[in-house]
Amino acid sequence: MIDVEKIRKDFPILNTKINNRNLIYFDNAATTQKPLCVVKAIEDYYLKENANIHRAVHFLAQKATSDYEDAREKVREFIGAKEKQEIIFTRGTTESINLVANSFIKSFVKSKDNIIISQMEHHSNIVPWQLMQNVVDFQIRVLPMNDEGELQIDKLTSLIDSKTKLVSLTHVSNALGVRNDIEKVIEIAHKKNIPVLVDGAQAVPHFSVNVQDLDCDFYAFSGHKLYAPMGIGVLYGKREFLDRMIPYQGGGEMIEHVTFEKTTFNELPYKFEAGTPNVGDTIALKEAINYINNIGYKNIEEYEDELLGYCEEKLRKSGAIIYGKTPKRVGAISFNLENVHPFDVGTLLDQFSIAIRTGHHCAQTVMQHFNIVGTNRVSFAIYNTKDEIDLFIESLERVKTMLY
Ligand code: PMP
């Protein structure tokens, strides 16, 4: 059971008043708010132990290094990776996918090969691959979704051929809140010996992920959607791939030996962590994981499911058009009011102190599929309540009277 009142005390920002009303924050898929323990971890780091890591022998450097490496071990345990060398710290999901796009394509993909993504990807799982087409002449194939917003996984087998080198798909759609059967995707791809990258940005905040159980080959996520700070993210990769991939960026830390003629590279994971990393936020990520673990994913899932079901039913009753049918909605509901631009809905709801997301959600190919300019998206976290949903629906009714 979740004690939501107790949890809300950990997030002072929720006491913000806008237009004399309590803030209702339903933009959690964009970024979650941060609990006090995470903010304190950042403060402690900069007040008590800031130093550059891995290099110096002095006390602060040793302490910062060991806390940074503890955070890596925490992430390993959190997603069930086999070795902590398979955990690479990045700026976020975007950088994690760019890393794989650059290194994987340069290492394993040749002219006329192909990779497969889907129609419901965030731009960060489309554009990095397109950019790499300037380097290697490979093809990007797209797994379609149906009008219900479900991936047509049965079409995957026919998209795969002997030149397919990678499948890269989102676990949960940020634009629709649809959870994909990624287990099935991995099973199909692995039958043909094709590795799979999973974009977990919208998954890990809501349910437990075990990369060994999934048997995915890469898994990417961002700290800031997981109650941790912005600017820290994770790429998990199986050693068998990471070992054979050339580095993404060059610089300090990622080398073993440098001469003007030739450079040899550091071991994993440092080979992929060039330059000074984001030490403070990495340590704060560990705190965020502790915070989630203390609440427990079972409780989080149960509570958020209840919120989602409650909100979806109320939205349907209010006549909203909801996108993405799914047996298991996760995190978000995307909707429109008939003949109303989402920006108008979002702007008016803001007057009622309700923060929702409007627009294409960095998923223009999803909007193109539905032939719409964008949607309104409400997305939930563990500190949201049914009372907030009631107020949101009430406010939406008032917005409707203003617009129709
Ligand atoms: N993938 C998905 C599914 C996302 O929701 C997001 C963030 N909206 C990203 C990738 C990119 O994450 P970030 O901006 O944190 O790098």
Secondary structure elements and their pairing?
Elements lengths: L3 H6 L7 E2 L2 E2 L1 E2 L10 H14 L9 H21 L7 E4 L2 H16 L5 E5 L8 H6 L6 E5 L12 H4 L4 E7 L11 H10 L4 E4 L11 H4 L3 E5 L10 E5 L1 H4 L12 E4 L4 E3 L13 H17 L1 H21 L3 E3 L8 E5 L5 H10 L2 E2 L1 E3 L4 H7 L4 E5 L6 H18 L1
Helix pairs in contact: 2-10, 3-10, 11-14, 12-14
The structure holds 4'-deoxy-4'-aminopyridoxal-5'-phosphate.
Strand content: 15-25%
Oligomer: single chain
**Ligand list:** 4'-deoxy-4'-aminopyridoxal-5'-phosphate
CATH superfamily of the largest domain: Type I PLP-dependent aspartate aminotransferase-like (Major domain)
Tell how many strands the DSSP assignment holds. Answer: 17
Percent helix, as a range, is 25-40%
What is the C-level CATH assignment of the largest domain? Alpha Beta
Shape summary: globular
Report the total helices: 14
Largest sheet: 7 strands, mixed
| Rg from alpha-carbon coordinates | 22 Å
| The number of domains | 2
| Global structural class | alpha/beta
CATH architecture of the largest domain, please?
3-Layer(aba) Sandwich
- Alpha-carbon distance between the two ends: 41 Å
Question: Major sheet: order of its strands?
Answer: 4-10-9-8-7-5-6
What's the overall average pLDDT, rounded? 97
CATH fold call of the largest domain = Aspartate Aminotransferase, domain 2
Low-confidence stretches: none
